[in-house]
Design a protein that fits this description.
By secondary structure, the protein is α/β, with parallel strands linked by helices. It has 13 helices and 19 strands. A seven-stranded mixed beta sheet has the order 6-5-14-15-16-13-17, sandwiched between helices. Strands 8-2-1-12-19-18 form a six-stranded mixed beta sheet. The chain has a three-stranded antiparallel beta sheet with strand order 3-7-4. A hairpin with a 2-residue loop joins β18 and β19. This is FAD-dependent monooxygenase.
Length: about 375
């Protein structure tokens, strides 16, 4: 008899988990609290580790078709437009950039029809014998396993990990947008106290993000978010002002950057936390969504390879906590360094003085342990023992 999982959350991590479960012969119900299934946000990049995980899910080719190569890590600039490092024409790049909705769509189209229930906000999770029951607005469902992929403000984490501290404000805030401007090559502009990221995301669209320090969270500029980010970057080089100008005011997103303190475990009986629900991290290494896709592959490979759900969840927890928590620590440090006014001059001088071949080697596909990660294999139902 086929086993069934309940996946809480229909974002990238939740859909990746559902797709992985399907590949090993499980059934799944995906509970999404939003009335309409769509991925919020603007853009993202994915590194080689995430692309290998997407390959294992069987959607790597579709994802590469939806992504656009970006040279953001090879084109580093200062606000006056000078290059600290510059990618050469034809240079290979390890990174693909996406409109967030495009990657979400790739996963959603691969998930079987009828698996996703929208308008289903979870209100309770309880173990009943060898099953887990999840109550949500409009009904309840039981299964052999719950995968909680419901984000940084996870309801499941709050219910079952009541002692876990809430998300932590990191002293930084960000404006994001998508501009209808023909694809640039991608770049990062390092200013004192903030940086501006540009990624091409295809079909004549460009993703941009301005990240800077903030003394406190939740400071907003109602009706003036576009004007505020334009004011802060008014003297920065082209095409930064043009990108902001080309973004509709209502499409400018303003978020505060938070992460989670390390949890002692990602599992509770037959419930597993995945993605931001387990290890939300700052965006400074571009690994948030990628780590959630990795989580999905590792969790489901463990389910396929272990004799019981409990031993599979123990293996998942043992495998994933060290890697994801180390990545989160590194992202936090990177973020503070790149937005530090005190460190700005030293950092940009070191980058400018680094020989270009050495810089290119450092951003190559096999340059660091995070990117070199290899996914476990997901066996099909007919090949499992």
């Amino acid at each position: 008899m086929s086993r069934q999982a309940i996946v809480v959350g229909g974002g990238i991590g939740g859909l990746a988990a559902a797709l992985a479960l399907r590949r090993i012969g499980w059934q799944a119900v995906v509970l999404e609290r939003a009335a309409e299934l769509r991925e919020i946000g603007a853009g993202m990049s994915q590194a080689p580790n995430a692309m290998r995980a997407l390959d294992e899910l069987g959607v790597g080719e579709q994802a590469r078709s939806a992504g656009v190569p970006t040279h953001a890590s090879g084109n580093l600039r200062t606000p006056d437009g000078r290059y600290l490092q510059r990618a050469r024409p034809g240079d290979p790049t390890a990174m693909l950039a996406f409109h967030r909705a495009d990657l979400h769509r790739v996963l959603l189209e691969a998930v079987p029809d009828g698996w996703v229930r929208t308008g289903a906000e979870v209100t309770a999770v309880a173990h009943q014998g060898d099953k887990v029951c999840v109550e949500y607005d409009g009904g309840q469902v039981s299964g052999d396993l719950v995968v909680a992929a419901d984000g940084i403000h996870s309801t499941v984490r709050r219910l079952l990990w009541p002692d876990a501290p809430p998300p932590r404000f990191l002293g930084r805030t960000a404006w994001l947008g998508i501009a209808e401007i023909a694809d640039p090559p991608g770049s990062i502009t390092l200013g004192p106290g903030g940086y501006f990221l540009i990624h091409p995301v295809g079909r004549g669209r460009t993703y941009w993000a301005y990240v800077t320090t903030a003394d406190q969270p939740d400071v907003r500029y109602p009706g003036q978010e576009k004007s505020e980010v334009a004011r802060r970057t008014a003297t920065w080089h082209d095409p930064i002002p043009a990108l902001i100008q080309a973004t509709p005011p209502e499409a400018v997103i303003h978020i505060d950057i938070r992460d989670l303190d390390p949890l002692p475990t990602y599992v509770h009986d037959k419930v597993a936390l995945l993605g931001d629900a387990a290890h939300a991290m700052s965006p400074d290494r571009g690994q948030g969504a990628g780590q959630s896709i990795e989580d999905a592959v590792v969790l489901v490979a463990a389910l396929a390879g272990e004799p019981t759900i409990q031993t599979a969840l123990h293996r998942y927890d043992t495998d994933r906590r060290p890697r994801t928590q180390a990545t989160a620590r590194g992202a936090r440090k990177d973020g503070h360094r790149t937005t530090s006014k005190a460190a700005h001059r030293t950092m940009t001088t070191m980058i400018r003085l680094m020989p270009a071949p050495l810089w290119r080697k450092g951003i190559a596909a096999d340059s660091n342990p995070t990117w070199r990660w290899q996914p476990p294999h997901l066996p099909s139902p007919t090949t499992r023992h």
